[in-house]
């Protein structure tokens, strides 16, 4: 495009998205008025869901295309600011939106690993990869690997790795879609998955990267409004200030004071002692599982008969009958049940129920040798997590592909800066929100009688006991902190209700979370389908396939990947962030050494890149799989997995990346140098882009 055409196109985008933003604000105000007039809860939630899906589907329909360049890279004409906004939406997944504040609530300073790692990763993208990939052109990351190293094998490995990494990541997003949609509508989790996924399919299926880009810009506007409004509103209600990022130190001081009080509270210590006893009981059951199953069945039967004999309330009898029906039927199920009980009891038996103190120093002297060893393991895992997230961000296919869509190398570099500017708004708000939620829990929830618990807590516990859970452990009728468990995945969604904000704000946050999950799912599904259609089908299987045929095949793969991800997510994966971390570790191990060496080391060749990617993937995936208790039990290995330097399996990329680098370097040096054509390509990539003359 000429400079004048580009200017007009950008101005048109400014007008459209300004109008869209005003429309979103007007829609929220209208629903707020409807709430005051008495609209039912499910009507407001349904309105948010319907409007969200219709708007995104409308953009997808408007942007539909069968043109190859438009479908794969949005015609390479996305302005830097809007590509940065789309990238930010692509990045602010269900993990960022739902999980970041939650993990800061649970882990305190330890949760900052996610913010540091992801932000550092974008710096690596700006310096090491984005400009050079845009200089290369083409459509996908396997495209780059195939062209840079030559031959079919590097491209095939790139396709397999891109599909694996993206599928693991997209499952998490679909899980978030189901969680949010069920919260908005009251539908079951499984139905919520497929209802919310409809908007994703329309965008990705019809318009490819063109539709996904403009949808993601719209989604970013929704999600950043949804994140900032409750933070500002909650801070206003708690402190009277409109500037939460400057004033939430007040809530932090109260939180620190309450943590100290709870650590010495006799009732809390009593609850911890009871949980410790339950942990010992679970250990005894695991020694002889069949006998424990019989004992549990007999105990519940006796309790039911005693309640009936005493003419106990019907609700109490039904509670015991439900417990009887939930009892495991096989030894394997029972063992899993008791192991879960043991893990929960051990968690809750810790001070503050295992929740880290909000301002606990990350590095402090240990009280004894065991404490020193534990803290060393914590610090190692923190640094390993930061490393994996940085390298994984710099190698994540759906992020890197976004820089193919800009008009020039300069725009690609600028769009990284815009991405960081848009992302930082959420990252600055997340710590404030975590403190505000903990303040609300400490001051308004802990110490409340079980008979007057808020409706939001009961509603979330009914939705999924794994998300919110309470139990009167010591029987005093008052909620202690050790009798409460809130999952990180639900804290952001529940925050407005915790703070007593209007219902419309609650559903605005849910709509923002849905936008975050859908925006990332869009990009990931497109990455999977493009790798299969362009790099596998076209480049290897059928090089004579027409552009229209390739695009149609890509659309079919979008549908297949979406259905597969929905099925896996319906199994209710445990926690969002662990899966996300695993995806980043795999991406780092598979791609980072080969991509960086492909740009900056002329001696890197096909054999070295192949060895590096396979070795990195094997070490990373092997360490993860070997660390899974279920796998170790199936293989007959020792119950306790081996931890290299105490590193958790999800951070296996800290071993995979160095292994990949070593293999790439050694094999490249031991085999013939790259061809002249490949060396010329490296020189061309690193040569500055010619300055375009003004039109």
Short synopsis of the structure:
With 695 residues, this protein is mainly alpha-helical. 76% of the residues lie in helices and 1% in strands.
Description:
Helix content is 76%, strand content 1%. It has 27 helices and two strands. The protein has helices at 3-36, 41-62, 68-73, 80-91, 94-107, 112-136, 141-149, 153-185, 189-239, 244-247, 249-263, 266-287, 289-309, 314-326, 331-348, 369-395, 397-400, 409-445, 455-463, 488-498, 503-541, 547-569, 576-600, 606-626, 629-635, 653-670, 676-685, and strands at residues 468-470, 484-486. The protein has a two-stranded antiparallel sheet with strand order 1-2. The longest helix is centred in the first third of the chain and has 51 residues, at 189-239. The relative contact order is 0.16.
Shape by Cα distribution: globular
Number of helices: 27
The structure class reads: mainly alpha
The SSE order reads: HHHHHHHHHHHHHHHHHHHEEHHHHHHHH
Largest sheet: 2 strands, antiparallel
In whole angstroms, the N-to-C terminal distance is: 10 Å
Give the averaged pLDDT, no decimals: 84
How many strands in all?
2
Helix content: over 70%
Strand order of the largest sheet: 1-2
What is the radius of gyration?
26 Å
Show unreliable segments.
691-695
**Strand proportion:** under 5%
Features:
single chain, 695 residues, mainly alpha, two-stranded antiparallel sheet, 27 helices, 2 strands, globular, disordered C terminus
